[in-house]
Amino acid sequence: MERRIGWEALNPVVSYANRLACDPGFAFGPRVVKDHQFIYTAEGRGRAEIGGRAYDAKPGDLFYYGPGVPHRFEADDDAPFVLYGLHFAPIGELPATGAIPYELPVDIRRGAETPPLAEAKLVLGDAASGFAVPEYISLPTGFAEPFFASAAQYFRLTDVLNHLRGRALLIRFLTELYERVRQARVEQDPAASLLETVRTRLRERADEPYRREWLSDWTHYHENHAAALFARLYGQSPHEYFLGCKLELAKKLLADENLSALETSERLRFGSVHHFTRLFKRRVGCSPGAYRRMGRLV
């Protein structure tokens, strides 16, 4: 099961956040929860089971599972872990005042009663740039713990401002986690160096019409294969990336060189000023003329 949410629609609510120092051998589960949840190992060791998959948990390890996915955690006898738990809904509304109405987020079911659902993915972004939140990832200890420690602190304070801070923290964490995962993928991909050259050349040719055959010329792959590799590595198609470069150049021409929409469209060879204007407004949020006028303001 997969839930896909566009970045622009992400509006999370932290429904519970806590820090738990476990006793030796302490365990919880098998259980399922009603919310999405992160479990972060701050200290110590233990074992984690999520949807039938087993992991050794150590400091810096982050686990994620969605609603209905069975899971179990057990602390080591000699070095029991310290965990942060954060339950959240990807889209939700904060209360106007006071605390979020709290409902127990855990529905414990054991043995044969454990539901069969073994995996639930949360995917952020559109089809071209989707980011599947990983079930397990090892992170630098200095990166994740401050987020979870602050979220736990804010949750204990019941005014709406602190719940808003919890939302802001989670948005920042998810976007930075996406960047870390993307960068790791780039570093590990054997085609990364070649595809980085493609990105550079697309930026350099942003004032030209897009040509799909560039992909085969620059990589010696079939253009469909090159496009698929590019999308896997960077989360968007070469054409989408090229349009982004083209619009960044258009903004520079409008603001810095004070060109009109028609002049900018012709300089960048968009084909027609109407196509340029529609694309610019859809992606930038205002017309080329309005953007040009904003460039004159202080």
UniProtKB/TrEMBL annotation:
Give the domain of life.
Answer: Bacteria
| InterPro entries hit by this protein | AraC-bd, AraC_XylS_family_regulators, Homeodomain-like_sf, HTH-like, HTH_AraC, RmlC-like_jellyroll
**Which stretches make up the HTH araC/xylS-type domain?**
196-294
Mind telling me which PANTHER family this protein's record contains?
HTH-TYPE TRANSCRIPTIONAL ACTIVATOR RHAS-RELATED
The protein here is known as AraC family transcriptional regulator
Q: Which of UniProt's keywords are assigned here? A: DNA-binding, Transcription, Transcription regulation
Q: Does the keyword ATP-binding apply?
A: no
The record, for Pfam families, names: AraC_binding, HTH_18
